[in-house]
Amino acid sequence: MARNVEFDRESAVNKAKDVFWEKGYNCTSMQDLVDAMQINRSSLYNTIGDKQQLFLECIDSYAKDMVCEATEKSENADSPLQGLINIIRDKAEWVVDCEKGCLGMKTIFEMAPNDEEVRKILMKSNDHYNDLITGLIQKAMDAGEIDPAEDASVMAEYIMTTFTGWKQSFILNRNPISIKKMSEFLIRSITHK
């Protein structure tokens, strides 16, 4: 009789996520995954599925974590504008502190052009993040904290694409002071202060 191996799925997926984050999808082997997750192949196949299914679960988990973290930053703020500022400053710190880069961006370039399932997960996450930022901007406009003549959705998309540019800049230049200055410039530009 085969023994039923139990494991903490969330912990195992987080370990797999770290491997994909470091190596990318194509350079990650099944052996890399089972070694990191500390489970045997049959447990992986029986509970999660193949490498592709595990990767989709990892990407979905990563995307949800990013949105959840930003939501918490905004909810703990004194005002909608302060929530937006918290997210911007937090993202600037993350750009400098996260040596691995952004798993979402890595996946966009490696997998999204040719993998519809990956693209759907990333688009859904992007839409949730964009909705969060747009909502904060609109609330800040309604509260008189941001010029109501601006387009909240365009401003949100601008902020999100700026985050990507910061990561590129930091990878190339390794200048944390520049990232901090750009984040403060972004805050001034959206508040006109």
Description:
With 193 residues, the protein is mostly helical. It has a domain at 59-191: Orthogonal Bundle (Tetracycline Repressor, domain 2), CATH 1.10.357. Helix content is 76%, strand content 0%. The chain contains nine helices and no strands. The radius of gyration is 19 Å and the shape is elongated.
Which properties best describe this structure?
193 residues, mainly alpha, Tetracycline Repressor, domain 2, 9 helices, 76% helix, elongated, disordered N terminus
The CATH topology of the domain at 59-191 corresponds to Tetracycline Repressor, domain 2
3D shape: elongated
Structural class: mainly alpha
Cα Rg: 19 Å
| Spans of at least 5 consecutive residues with low confidence | 1-5
Class of the domain at 59-191 in CATH? Mainly Alpha
Our measurement of the CA-to-CA distance between the termini, rounded to an integer number of angstroms, reads 70 Å
Proper CATH architecture of the domain at 59-191: Orthogonal Bundle
Order of helices and strands: HHHHHHHHH
**Total number of strands:** 0
Oligomeric status of the shown chains? single chain
Strand residue content: under 5%
